[in-house]
Amino acid sequence: MDRINWASAPWSDAEPLECAMVVPETADTATITFRAPSGAWFDYLPGQFLTLDLPVPGQPVSRTYTISSSPSRPLSLSVTVKAQPGSVGSRWLIEQLKPGMRLRAHGPAGEFSLRRHPARKYLLISAGSGITPMMSMTTWAWDSGEMPDIVFVHAARRPSDIIFRPRLEQFAARVPGLQLRFTVEEVEPFSVWHGFRGRLNQIMLGLMAPDYLEREVFCCGPEPFMRGVKDSLAALGFDMNRYHQESFGPPETAPEALPEASEAAEIRFTASGVSTACAPGETVLAAAKRAGLNIPSGCNFGLCGTCKVKKTAGEVQMLHNGGISEDDIAAGYILACCSRPSGKVAVEI
């Protein structure tokens, strides 16, 4: 029987991922488990994300998904996908991806992880598919062998929409340090619901976690939901330095907040030998696509970090949303999706 060589290097995105199984979670959500064809193990932080290149017929796309599995179980890696109305990539994953098929991936990446913010007590707050990084972090805590102190708050439309509910309840039934607090907007007919009902608010939060002021808070969900949680905690006197959030959508940015690019902007893609003039406000990513060059990208608003490239000359105006570290910026890297050239710029593409 082959044994895993834990001394060998872990999986890297130079190798594709192979689909091992697709497991339904709710009516419109599925967990997709991948393995490394080489048998390599996976190393990442609980809460990080991955960008997948999806061969959607006629329009290949890249999409970013939080890893819902935990690095404490390193033989496979899972993402949990919710097929939103009108979605292309997520719908393709759920309906077309089959075991044995392989995809290119980029990452893992991301700063949203309890491993980066050690604390004695945690408060995890999520809504909808925002539960995925919380599941990864909760599984990590469960597997750590230490008694966790986690209050896990999740909001959903209906009880049947709560992703991972059976697994979380199994965890909580065996570990008193994990407290589950679910709230739903409506209850299915002919069913009994013993949890909270209604949208999460200050009063409900105080009942769910009376000691919230003592906890490190992680929040993930739709932008309006996270804004409401953040405003509620701030109004309650919470130390916002202990508040961390992850987003699945672009932040609400006023158009006038974006700086204008120079009309004389020009980009030279050094590895490709291609140069192109840039229209005012055009990003490096958009210019590259127009020039027939491919820069892998995911979120397209400076969060996932997939489009990170090395700038070798010139200046850009970059308004990112946490997808790049200060060390990378100091080393000359930029995010192509949210960088606008100022004058002549050279990029290693």
TrEMBL record:
Keyword Iron: yes
Example of a GO MF term: 2 iron, 2 sulfur cluster binding
PROSITE patterns for the chain: 2FE2S_FER_1 (PS00197), 2FE2S_FER_2 (PS51085), FAD_FR (PS51384)
Protein family membership: In the N-terminal section; belongs to the FAD-binding oxidoreductase type 6 family.
Name of the protein this chain belongs to: Oxidireductase, ferredoxin domain protein
Keywords for the protein's UniProt record, in alphabetical order: 2Fe-2S, FAD, Flavoprotein, Iron, Iron-sulfur, Metal-binding, Oxidoreductase
Residue ranges of domain FAD-binding FR-type in the record: 12-115
A Pfam family assignment: Fer2
